[in-house]
UniProtKB/TrEMBL annotation:
Protein name: DUF4123 domain-containing protein
Start and end residues of each DUF4123 domain: 62-179
InterPro entries per UniProt: DUF4123
Length: 453
């Protein structure tokens, strides 16, 4: 099981509560369409503001940037007028300058610094590319570069070493977010002997933006500390997995009626990828097929009794995964082709609700409601489906006291597990807010007519 996918500051992991860690509200980038506009005040304060008004050393702003993200980064820095150093030394410093990390001191009025903070489609708008991480320090660039070079290569075990790409925002988010609970390691990153090197890290490319302030005390100088633990490596693996999930989510298509946001699709993709792993399915193309189906019939269609025959075939490990997913996709397409269009089935749900409103003493039985919405299924399939949905209803304490027939009709339309389906979030949020069945019916009608709720 992998981390949940969510658009938060920890890229799938919630940020811990710690006095050193602060979420920054109201941070927004420069707009690429607004030429020469000022850096938004909150962003400027986070990256270029001074901690005190007293005369004294200036708090500087640094970034570690990835040359694999910004094409021609070395040449850009050489012509930028900014102080910069490559963090790999020796032979690696000569061979990897086009793919490795560059430390650069930024100034507020420099055009390259502004490009790092600009969102847009232009080739020099780097915000959405997330090219690195930012931090603040009172020290000049030379001692900082020397300090950070200690962390670019870490020991895995007694025999193996590995490069540590701590400047990648997704890696930095899960790694630095865990440091407040690991004092010795936290201090090692922020201090060199008894001298504080880094005052605070500013995770600008996270959502929300957050800041990590150095601990007030140093660690034990000279103590051997493992920079990357096994738990860190597991989290990095989850980050890579979530990145793959997001790539799949961007490639799938959703039905027009879905109303799902991109993050809803990403969460749906993560759920499908988790349960599909139990069937030996992990390839991007295969998962893409399953997600396309899930967006139409529900993210947990593997649990839906209506599709148990499909799932049984999906679990036949003697057949290659690509053949199994292709066959399931074709079955789903056939099923959707043979059923009534979505708008027509939505009308049937409205009809079930109208029946309950007009004939309160003569309610629609769940079985009859399901038959009305999904006429393709057999009696036994409907019966099993209704029992499954009823069991799910008992597990949801937030469910309004709607008649069971109404819930079953909605489940036939949106999926057996629609109440916890991320791709149905907009629907469920609106429907939960319905004050009564009349209001519920009107909300469904607005969905059908694509009116605002």
């Amino acid at each position: 099981m992998h981390a949940d996918v969510s658009e938060n500051a920890g890229f799938g992991y919630p940020l811990p509560t710690a006095k050193e860690l602060t979420e920054l509200e109201g941070i927004r980038p420069l707009d690429g369409d607004a030429l020469h506009g000022p850096i938004p005040e909150e962003l400027k304060n986070a990256l270029f503001g001074q901690l005190t008004q007293n005369q004294g050393p200036k708090l500087r702003t640094y970034a570690v940037l990835d040359a694999t993200v910004i094409f021609g980064l070395a040449e850009i820095l050489h012509s930028s007028g900014l102080s910069h150093q490559f963090l790999y030394s020796g032979a690696a410093g000569e061979e990897l300058s086009d793919v490795g990390p560059w430390l650069v001191e930024l100034s507020e009025d420099n055009s390259f610094a502004r490009n790092l903070l600009t969102v847009g489609d232009g080739p020099s708008h780097y915000w959405n590319k997330r090219p690195g991480i930012f931090f603040r320090s009172y020290l000049p660039i030379e001692p900082i570069a020397k300090h950070l070079r200690h962390f670019t290569r870490v020991r895995i075990d007694e025999e193996r070493w590995a490069l540590f790409r701590f400047w990648e925002p997704k890696i930095a988010a899960v790694y630095f977010g865990s440091l407040p609970g690991r004092h010795e390691l936290f201090a090692r990153w922020c201090y060199d002997s008894n001298q504080r090197v880094i005052e605070r890290w500013v995770m600008v490319y996270c959502d929300p933006v957050w800041m990590l302030t150095a601990p007030s005390t140093t660690g034990q100088h000279g103590k051997v500390i493992k920079i990357v633990e096994e738990e860190d490596r597991r989290r990095f693996s989850d980050v890579a997995w979530l990145q793959g999930v997001n790539e799949i989510a961007k490639s799938v298509s959703q039905p027009q009626w879905s109303n799902a946001s991109q993050i809803d699709v990403e969460r749906t993709t993560a759920i499908v990828a988790n349960w599909a792993a139990g069937y030996g399915i992990s390839g991007k193309r295969d998962l893409g097929r399953l997600v396309n189906v899930a967006l139409r019939i529900g993210c947990r269609f593997d649990m839906d009794p209506r599709f148990s025959v499909w799932i049984a075939a999906l679990g036949n490990m003697n057949v290659p995964a690509n053949i199994r997913t292709l066959a399931l996709q074709e079955k789903a397409a056939e099923y959707l082709h043979d059923t009534s269009p979505f708008a027509e089935r939505l009308k049937m749900v409205e009809r079930v609700i109208a029946h309950h409103i007009e004939r309160d003493s003569d309610k629609f039985a769940p079985l009859d409601a399901c038959r009305l919405v999904d006429h393709k299924l057999s009696h036994d399939a409907h019966f099993e489906f209704c029992n499954f949905v009823s069991g799910r209803m008992e597990m949801d304490p937030k469910l309004p006291p709607w008649p069971e027939g109404v819930i079953c009709a909605l489940a036939c339309l949106l999926g057996a597990c629609f109440l916890t389906d991320p791709s149905r979030r907009v629907w469920v949020t609106s429907l939960r807010d319905a004050t009564d069945l009349t209001d519920l019916r009107m909300r469904l009608k607005r969905f059908r007519q694509k009116e605002p709720i």
